[in-house]
Amino acid sequence: MGLTIQEVEHIAELAKLRLTAEEKTRYREQLSAILDYANCLQAVDTTGIPQTATVLPLKNVMREDKQQPSLPPDVALANAQEKENGFFRVPPILDE
Amino acid sequence: MEYEVIIGMEVHAQLLTESKMFCSCSADYADAPPNTHVCPVCLALPGALPVINKAAVEATILAGLALHSDIAETAVFARKNYHYPDLPKGYQISQYELPLCLHGHVDIQDDNGQPKRIRIERAHLEEDTGKLVHMGDHSLVDLNRAGVPLLEIVTEADIRSATEAYNYLTKLRTLLRYAGVSTADMEKGAMRCEANISVRPVGQKEFGTKVEVKNLNSFRAVRNAIDYEVKRHIQVLESGGQIKQVTMGWNEAAGHTFVQRSKEEANDYRYFPEPDLPPLQVSQAWIDEIAQRLPELPDAKAERFAAQYRLQPADVMFLTSEQDIANWYEAAVALYPQPKTVAAWFTGELIGIAREKGVTFKEGNVTPAGLVSILQLIDTGKINRNTGKAVLAEMFANGESAERIVVNHGWAQVSDDAALAGIIERLLAHHPGEVAKYRGGKKGLMGWFMGQVMRETQGKANPDVVRKLLQETLERGA
């Protein structure tokens, strides 16, 4: 199995997920299977092939620096669970 | 033991564009009510797609050229993944393995005023984050700033003191302003700074453990925070302790750093190429076109000013510190080809008046032609030098012409021999003691007599004429 339980816990932490012990075991199996599958690609000889960020035949897709109207405030905040004086209201942030 | 300080800096500067980095919301969010400059892209609504702002890419290339960087042929945006409410996507679009600018340098002065080169590792383009307001039991999020184009400039660990860090930042700000890509105004948050600081005994090869100090939001804070951390490191090392690798904040009011987070929970940003944005291909033709917009840079300008105008290093440094200052000076010298006189009046008198009023010289009403008209009035003897200073102060305040100010205040210089002779006769008659002393050999009293005449004429007398008449009168009676 590719992943350890500790690695699953680390990934869950980064994704801000709280997992039960049973879920950790299940995701360990599923994520490991996905990784094993992706690992098939390691068998391909990539010598001489440049690192490729995208396979689309596109480059330099840019727009001119022109301002357009933003959303009306009530629309901008329409999906907010909580709001306060035009701000999104979120739980306290203790990090900083 | 002797210690060596090792500092690397990361500076974020907002780029001066009309719209945001990946959407068309206005990038000018100052004073805007919260969440009024937002759209599906910068709110991260599902399905919204970013589009690269061409002006931001060009500004980054322009900055890269000003930093003497190599401009990458291929640059790729990357996702930097982290969860924090200041970025609703759950990642910041940045550049990682293939930034736009690599291997530049900024030339500064070290603690002894000697030239020193700070190498730039990279400069890349990314998006700014939203603003959080901490309310105690909850926090508030304003996403107006989220998505504003941001240039991150990273140095090699070449900085060796708080003074060098300060000089680097000052020079960087000057360069960004010359290039016209950022206001680089730290007080307004358009330029922000982080310092990686470590200390090692002199002679040791390995670096000491570094700490990262964030939230350095003024030039003073940078200097103070580095001084504080260096002292702290040395104290810990001297007492046999170990530096912990942490991220710190700086409390300017209290004058100390504080631990923000320890590196055990080290960030794992899982960078990967941004699939929504195709790569940038930068051709030499495009770079050449952008390079046309680069003005004469501060170092080249300083060299030219020193050679062309034969000015003192301090004057050169000041006159090239901002383009507006340099342009103003050169416009004045073009009208009045006496570079040293113009420099003295500009750096000494005009800037002095502005400082006294607590404004910049641009906020006053003195044009290059205005200053020159004062200098010409002095040259033709219409006013004396001291009156010239008073005229300059008046002009600064109300913008009237020098001639008009002189007439309105009755400040025209009195060079009329007869009028001055009368004043001198009366003065000497009132002070027989001083006259006797002077005639007895105390020639130093000339200054005192001069002062009396100037006071009598409210400073308007032509000092050369006064000196001549005083000498004649005093010597005649001796």
Textual characterization of the structure:
The complex is a heterodimer of chains A (96) and B (478). Chain A has 96 residues and is mainly α. Chain A has a domain at 5-43: Histone, subunit A (Orthogonal Bundle). Chain A contains 3 helices and 3 strands. In chain A, strands 2-3 form a two-stranded antiparallel sheet. Chain A starts with a helix and ends in a 6-residue tail after the last strand. Chain B is α+β, with helices and mostly antiparallel strands. Chain B is 40% helix and 21% strand. In chain B, the strands form 4 sheets. A 9-stranded mixed β-sheet of chain B has the order 3-7-8-11-1-12-13-14-15. Chain B has a 3-stranded antiparallel β-sheet with strand order 6-5-16, with no helix packed on it. In chain B, α12 crosses α15 (463-477) and α14 (446-456) crosses α15. The longest helix of chain B has 20 residues, at 219-238. Classes of the chains: A mainly alpha (96), B alpha+beta (478). At the A-B interface, β1 and β3 of A face β2, α1, β9, β10 and β17 of B.
